[in-house]
Each structure stands twice: as structure tokens, then as C-alpha cells.
Amino acid sequence: MKFKSPPVNSLSLDFITEFCIGLEKLENNRECRGVIFTSAVPNIFSSGLDITEMCGKSMEHYAEFWRAVQEMWLRLYGSNMVTVAAVNGSSPAGGCLIALTCDYRIMVENPKFVIGLNEAQLGIVAPFWFKDTFVNTVGHRVAERSLQLGSLHSASEAHRLGLVDELVPEVKLQEKAAAVMAQWLALPDHARQLTKSMMRKAVLDRLVAHREEDVQNFVNFISKESIQKSLRMYMEMLKKKKR
Amino acid sequence: MKFKSPPVNSLSLDFITEFCIGLEKLENNRECRGVIFTSAVPNIFSSGLDITEMCGKSMEHYAEFWRAVQEMWLRLYGSNMVTVAAVNGSSPAGGCLIALTCDYRIMVENPKFVIGLNEAQLGIVAPFWFKDTFVNTVGHRVAERSLQLGSLHSASEAHRLGLVDELVPEVKLQEKAAAVMAQWLALPDHARQLTKSMMRKAVLDRLVAHREEDVQNFVNFISKESIQKSLRMYMEMLKKKKR
Amino acid sequence: MKFKSPPVNSLSLDFITEFCIGLEKLENNRECRGVIFTSAVPNIFSSGLDITEMCGKSMEHYAEFWRAVQEMWLRLYGSNMVTVAAVNGSSPAGGCLIALTCDYRIMVENPKFVIGLNEAQLGIVAPFWFKDTFVNTVGHRVAERSLQLGSLHSASEAHRLGLVDELVPEVKLQEKAAAVMAQWLALPDHARQLTKSMMRKAVLDRLVAHREEDVQNFVNFISKESIQKSLRMYMEMLKKKKR
User: Fold this and answer.
1) Contact B188, C123 (CB under 8 A)
2) Does B243 score more than 70 pLDDT?
3) What are its GO cellular component terms (chains A, B, C) (predicted)?
4) How many CA atoms lie less than 13 Å away from C129 in the CB half-sphere?
């Protein structure tokens, strides 16, 4: 599955909705046992949640957007398919989350590519299920420090911290991702799926049990004037950067 | 305690029953404060649960066998004694579990010896308490990947992942195990035991609270025709290998 | 904040009470966003809880002392400020706990300085919230082994285990601590504080929910004749060492 939503594969409501529909089709297709996520846009895997969806919109819109983000995570983290992230560009915030939900993460060893849950840098807070997914991958201490600092880690640092499993040169990425997929698909589906579910169930169940509460928290938080102001400033900064 | 049940120290119902009686005696013997587990069979620590106990038998037999496996784990993981695994051979599945329950794991640095919870390779799933013991030792991420792939790790890889604490040449194994035991026995029993219990209680309590449910899950799963077929094929493969 | 209670910055009831008052003032001072903890006493950060408070006193005194220790931990681990430990000397038991509650730990790379939760060496047991703080920092396996052995780790070993984040030469310590503080203060307070709280809330809530029970456990345990005897022997040993 190739993300192709230039300029930066940001996760807009439309993008996420289409993504979830695509995932559901694959999940229900008995002939599809695994999926590799990568980007068709140079230098960026995904820039994460689209800030324009969280800025200057109605409470209803924020709620709808957040339910879509939850849905995407639930489908990805709970997928029965083998999921491999072939990270061929930077991957902040929600982009990092997509990689974190996969069974295996391969990243191009380009010193310019960064990855991390940098929400704190924007003045916002990653929800508990982003955090849980992160802790399951890198452990409590690394997550605590990285989340508080909103760190974006270079590929080599991400590898050292266990945030990605393997680094490869860009030309080897697709070949490597296919080899990893073949290795995981060699296992009997049934045993692999039950094992995956056993490992992730507690964290998945936690969001399912608190889903509406989490939507309300998000809507209340994001609609605060101070947060809106931070996001507007951040978007201004991004625009200036581009010029 | 030397495992001597050739050819591969497989954990049959008889073996486990005797093992538990032996453990209970040591546990109740005030003069015995620690135990070292090792193998008297060359090249194998223990091959894990005896597949013949799980194949072509009655539901009652499966239930009896599983209760014995639970009992063994509860005694080992909850032992008040200092327990050291001197792993002098390969140690898949249940053999790895015995090592994981110990306070310290030393393995012979022989590139032919492997260790891991490889249940998924056989088309079966490690129960949640195998998983909990594994996560407590190597962390969530390593466990998730290793369990899904049913990985058997070489001694050096097992050391790198934290699955074993130390590697030694075969000739040094008993000497090293004795030295580790002496180090642990130097602590006041009471404080060490309370600390051990504090670290392991949550995981032990979880099985105790769900013991009969876990037996039923196992019996239902293992008696499925598809699983029985997988196990028969696996046994055929093992027989062919031997010839 | 410089600990200055010679000879070894031991955490007496008076020291802890004053420390908590100081912390509360800083916490309520809107101009104070961070605090660096270090020692004004050469070669020692803090020797931990004052054993004289736990030996030969009344049950009421033990209870009062323990409530103060709980209070100190709740304030430190739950602080909204950025907290940095500049560990410029040995830091056993309660001294290590103070470091563990911080957002970042820098230690002087002096082979004579040791750090760890060595309670088991004294025949006593670290309470569950010391353990939880430790597990959150170094993971379950390292904590299990280190707590059972009552290990005091050299600075370099502590760094390897993740018990401290960074080692520096003594002359660079204050400069480094200030640089780390500046890095953490660069984040928006609100987002950083909410993130910190999200990471630590489960562990903080656990003590709050069991606070009186934990006091009773401590009082019952510490007032046992066998424990009192261990502590008296330990104090005798310390006195002899000094002569």
C-alpha cells in the first residue's frame, strides 16, 4: 500500500476514511495475508494528522475526525494481516503511529529522515493509546523521555532505541520489506494471529472501553483557545518554511 | 537437579509429575535454599512439552496434562528457592519456559544450541502465562516479535536479547552456576524471597485466577482436528529427521 | 536544590519534612519551572532513609516516618516541574529513589560512586512503589535481578542498565545539568506536564489508593524483632567502618 497524498501524506479526514476502507477490504480478502506500507512521495513517509482538521473547525468536525483516527489505529494495531512499515522518509506524530502499529519496521538509513511522536513540540499531547503503542515498542523509560521532549529521532537513533527494527539503504528497501514479509508469512496464519492478538489485546481493549470518553477529551482539549492559538502559530511557521 | 530423560528430556506427564514432587520436597526442605537445573543428556536442555501427550488422546488426558504443566510453572516461577538454569543444550518451547522461570540463566556458548518459545512454528499458541513470563524477561517488543515468528535464538542472540544472562564455555558451566548460586545465597533469604514474590505476584496470580478457564481453552484448542493434524505432521517430520 | 546534611545526607524525618516543604514552595511558585537536585556533601548524593528513624522507636514514630517518605515520593514523582538529578556521589536506597523520580539522571563517572536499591542487603524489602518506579526506569528483568541482589551499581554499569541517562566528569556536571534543564524547559509546560502525568499516573495512583495499608505493612514489618536485629547489626557495622 503506497501512500500518495502530496505534498506530505498528511492524514486528513478524507485520507483516513479512504485508508480505513482500503484496509477493511484487504482484511476481508482471504487471499491477502500481509501488507507493506510505504510512501510514493519523496522524503516523507507521512507527516501525521492533518492540522487543518484540528484548527478552526466545529466541535462536531473534531469529534468526527477523532473517531476516524481511532478507527484507523484500531484497524492497524488489531490487524490479522502481517503488517510491515517500509519507512522511506520522515515520519512524525501520526506517521510514526502508523509505523508503530506494524509487526516490523524497516527504515531507510538517511540522516535527514526523522521519526517520533513529537506532539509535545506542538503544545499538544499524544493520546493514551499512542502512548501505549509506543511503550509496547520501546519500553516505558524511552517512551517517557521521548514523549515529554517531543523528540524526532534520526534513523540511526530510532534503530538504537528499538523504534525501528532495521535500517537499509534506500535501494534495498522494497527487496528487504518483501523478504521480511515472506519470513512472517511462512508461519501458520492461525497461530501467528492468535499470538499477535494475545500481545496487543490489553491495549486495544483499553481504547474500545473508553472510546467516546477519549473523543470528548480530544474535542475539549483541541477546541481550547490556547491550543488553537498554538496550532495556528505552528501552521504559520510551516507556511513560512515553505516559502 | 539434572534432567535425565533420554533422548531429549521431553516433558511428559510422568516427567512433570515426578519433577513437581521433587520440587515440592526441595521447597519444604529448610536446608535446601537453591537449586540449579541442568541436563544429563548431551546437546539438549529440554525439548519442551511432550507432543505425544497432546496428540490422539482423550479430552480428560489433555486436561490432566495441562494441569500438570500449570502446576510445574506455578512451582518454578513462584519458588522461594534461588533457581539457576545451567542451559547446556537446546531449549525450545517448554524447555525455554523452565529456563525463563529461573532467577538467572547461564547458557553454553555453542552455536548449535538454540532457545526460544517456538510454539507458533508448530501451529500452536503459547498460553498467556508463558507470554507473561517471557515479557517479564525480555520486554514486550522482543516477546511480540519472537513469539509471532516462533523464533529459536542462537545462544549469542539469546544473550543479546536478554533471554539468557550469561554465556560460558561448556567446561565452565557448573563452576559458573555454583558461583552465581553462592552470590544469590549471600542475601538474607527473607528479604530476597519477599522481593522475588513482589516482582512475580501479579503474573502468578493471573494464572491462579484463571486456571480452570485456561485448562478449558487448552483442551478446546488442542483437540481441534486442524491442530491435531498439524501436530501429527510435526511428529512425522521429527521421525523422518531421526532416520 | 543542594542537599547539605552531613555526613551523608541521610533522609531523616526532619530532612524529609523540610524537603517536602521546600518542594511545595517551588511547585506553587509559578516562576519556578524546574529543579536540579545535587549534593553539597563530597562523595555522597544521599545515603537514603535514615536507619535511626527505623530502629528502636515507637510504632507511631515508624508510621509518621513512613507517611513522610510516601509524601516525598508522591511530590517528586508527581512533580509538574522538570526535575534533573545531578548525582555527584554514591546514592544507595532512598538516595537512588530520589534520582529515579527525576525526569533525567546525570551521574559523575567516578568508579567509586555507586547507585542502586540495595534494601535486600540490609534484610529489608523495597516497597512496591520503589519497585514500580524502578521498573518504569530499567524494565522488569533488570529490576527483578537488581532488587533481589540488592545491587549497588558502579556509575558505568548504572549507565549501561539505563539507571542513569548520562555520565560526565565531575567538573562538567553542573554545566551539563543546566543544559539538560534548558532542553526540557524549551517545551511548552502544559503539554510536557500532561505527558508526564500520563506516563506516571498509574504508578502514583497505586500508592494513593493503598497508602494507609502500605503504612501498616511497613510498621508491622519494621517492628519485627528479627528486622530490628538486622538493622542494629547493620548500624554497628557502619560505626565500625567509620572508626
Assistant:
1) yes
2) no
3) mitochondrial matrix
4) 30
Across the interface, which of C119, C147, C226 has its CB nearest the CB of B199?
C147
Measured CA to CA in angstroms, residue A88 lies from A36, A99, A144, C148 at distances of: 12, 11, 26, 45
Which residue in the block uniquely carries the three cell numbers 525463563?
B100
Q: Is C157 on the interface with A (CB under 8 A)?
A: no
Q: Please tell me which residue of chain A has the smallest CA distance to B144.
A: A199
The whole-angstrom separation of Cα C221 and Cα B22 is 32
Query: What does chain A come to in residues?
Result: 243
User: With bands split at pLDDT 50, 70 and 90, how would you rate the model's confidence at C235?
Assistant: confident
Burial level of C190, CB count in 10 A (0-12/13-18/19+)?
middle
- Catalytic one among C13, C23, C26, C49? C49
Is-catalytic flag, B161?
no
String of DSSP letters for chain A: -EE--TTTTEE-HHHHHHHHHHHHHHHH-TT--EEEEEESSTEES--EE-GGGGSS--HHHHHHHHHHHHHHHHHHHT-SSEEEEEE-EEEEHHHHHHHHTSSEEEEE--TT-EEE--GGGGT----HHHHHHHHHHH-HHHHHHHHHHT--EEHHHHHHHTSSSEEE-GGGHHHHHHHHHHHHHTS-HHHHHHHHHHHHHHHHHHHHHTHHHHHHHHHHHHTSHHHHHHHHHHHHHHHHHH-
Give pLDDT, residue A235: 87
Say if strands A82-87 and A104-108 run parallel, antiparallel, or are unpaired: parallel
Contact between A119 and C191 using a beta-carbon 8 Å cutoff:
yes
Most C CBs within 10 A among A141, A221, A231, hence the mutation to make, goes to A141
Is residue B157 part of the annotated active site? The answer reads no
C-beta atoms of B230 and A188 within 8 A = yes
**C-alpha distances out from residue A201 to A98, A100, A136, B130, B144, Å:** 17, 15, 12, 16, 12
Q: What is the ipTM of this complex?
A: 0.95
Find cell 512521495 and name the residue: A41
Q: Which H or E element spans position C34? A: strand C34-39
Place of cell 473508553: A210
- B167 in contact with A at a CB cutoff of 8 Å? no
Which CATH code fits B2-171+186-242? 3.90.226.10
Q: Do A144 and C165 touch (CB under 8 A)?
A: no
Are C192 and A126 inside 8 Å of each other by CB? no
- Tell me how far apart the alpha carbons of residues B197 and B181 are, in angstroms, rounded to a whole number: 18
pLDDT value for C124:
93
* A226 neighbourhood in chain C, CB within 8 Å: 190
Among the options A34, A119, A173, A207, which is catalytic?
A119
Taking Cα atoms as reference points, which of C207, C10, C214 lies closest to residue C92?
Answer: C10
Nearest C-alpha in B relative to A196:
B148
- A148: its cell numbers: 515529554
User: Which pLDDT tens digit goes with each residue over B36-90?
Assistant: 999 999 999 999 999 999 999 999 999 999 999 999 999 999 999 999 999 999 9
Establish if A6 touches chain B: CB-CB under 8 angstroms: no
